[in-house]
Design goal:
By secondary structure, the chain is an all-beta fold. The protein is about 0% helix and about 35% strand. Bound molecules: calcium ion (2 copies).
C-alpha cells in the first residue's frame, strides 16, 4: 500500500517454483533392442500422447557410444509454447535405453515438450529431437462461478505477519467486497507483505481465451502483483506475469484491479492461482498494510 521506493532486487522465489526435480532411475523397459543410432531416440511418452499419470516414465534409446557405463543422460521437460523448464534431471545411461520418472508431478493444462541429451566423461554430447505430450486434463468443477472458492495456502514473512493488520487469507475468497475510508481502517482484503503470497482454488478453470483470462482485485493503490498458475494444488506453478501494475479502476468497485493472460505462460487451462506480492517493499515499511492488498480473484475466460 505505501507509495515509497520499490525494492529492485530480483524476486527470490520466481525461479524456485520451477526448480529441478530429482529423478528415480528405473529398471529398464522393453524397446531397447536393435542397433543404437547416432543420437538418442525418444521412445515414451510418444509424440502427441496424453499420458494417464502426472509422473510418467520417460524412456529414450541410447545413442551409439553413449551406452551404459559410458554416458549420462539429462532429461528435460518444458512448457512447449514458452520452452520454460518444468523439470530436469541427469541419470547414468541404462543398457540400450535409459528411463526415469521425476519424483514430483509435472504440469497439467499445458502442451509439454521433452528431450534428452547424452554426455560422456570426455565431454562429447548428443541431443535428441523433441516431442510433445500432455498430462491428464485439469480436473475442473463446473457451475462454480468466477471467483476464488477456497485457500490452498498462504505465506507471509514473519516481519510482515507481525506488523500487518490485514492478514486473513479468507478475505481473498468470493466477489470483491473490500472497503474503508482513505487511510483506513479497511476491510475485505489480505495484505501480502514483503513478497508474501496466497494460493486459491477457483473450483472451475480459467482457459486461455482471447485476451486476458484472470482478474486480480487489489485495494487502495497500485501495488504490483505477480501471478502463478497450476492445474493441481501442489503445483508445479508456472509464472504468468511478474510484478504487474495492479491499480486500474473499475466502475462501481472499491478495489483496483489488474488482468493476466494464461497464454503468456503457455497454459491452456488452470484451476489453482497463486497471487504474490510484487511490491517487495522492505519490512517494516511503516504501515499496517504492507504489500499488495488482495480483495478477490476472478476467472474472465471460464472453461464451460
Ligand atoms: Ca488469454
Ligand atoms: Ca475480499
Amino acid at each position: 500500500m505505501p507509495s515509497g521506493p520499490v525494492r529492485t532486487r530480483a524476486n527470490r522465489r520466481t525461479g524456485a517454483t520451477l526448480s529441478l526435480l530429482l529423478a528415480a532411475v528405473l529398471p529398464c523397459c522393453g524397446n531397447d533392442s536393435g542397433p543404437l543410432g547416432a543420437k538418442p531416440t525418444l521412445l515414451e511418452p510418444v509424440n502427441g500422447a496424453r499420458v494417464t499419470t502426472d509422473s510418467p516414465i520417460f524412456t529414450s534409446r541410447n545413442a551409439q557410444g553413449f551406452d551404459a557405463g559410458a554416458a549420462t543422460y539429462t532429461f528435460r521437460v518444458a512448457v512447449a509454447p514458452t520452452d520454460r523448464e518444468v523439470a530436469s534431471a541427469t541419470v547414468a545411461a541404462g543398457s540400450g535405453s535409459t528411463s526415469i520418472r521425476f519424483d514430483k508431478p509435472l504440469l497439467r493444462g499445458a502442451l509439454l515438450t521433452w528431450r534428452v541429451s547424452g554426455r560422456t566423461a570426455s565431454g562429447s554430447e548428443v541431443v535428441s529431437d523433441s516431442t510433445t505430450f500432455r498430462l491428464p486434463a485439469v480436473a475442473c468443477a463446473s457451475g462454480q462461478g468466477p471467483y476464488a472458492k477456497s485457500v490452498v495456502d498462504s505465506w507471509l514473512p514473519a516481519c510482515s505477519a507481525a506488523t500487518n493488520h490485514y492478514n486473513n487469507p479468507q478475505e481473498v475468497i468470493g466477489p470483491p467486497d473490500a472497503g474503508g475510508p482513505t487511510g483506513g481502517p479497511y476491510f475485505g482484503f489480505m495484505s501480502l507483505g514483503d513478497g508474501g503470497h496466497v494460493t486459491v482454488d477457483m473450483g472451475g478453470c480459467a482457459v486461455d481465451g482471447a485476451g486476458d483470462d484472470v482478474r486480480v482485485y487489489q485495494s487502495v493503490s497500485g501495488e504490483p502483483v505477480t501471478l502463478y498458475a497450476s492445474g493441481t494444488p501442489d503445483g508445479p506453478y508456472v509464472l504468468v506475469e511478474s510484478r504487474k501494475f495492479c491499480g486500474n479502476r473499475m466502475a462501481g468497485v472499491y478495489s483496483r484491479m489488474c488482468t493476466f493472460d494464461l497464454g503468456l505462460a503457455g497454459l491452456e487451462e488452470a484451476r489453482y492461482l497463486r497471487v504474490e506480492d510484487g511490491e517487495l517493499f522492505p519490512c517494516p515499511g511503516g504501515t499496517d498494510s504492507e504489500g499488495a492488498d488482495i480483495d478477490a480473484v476472478e476467472i474472465l475466460n471460464a472453461k464451460p
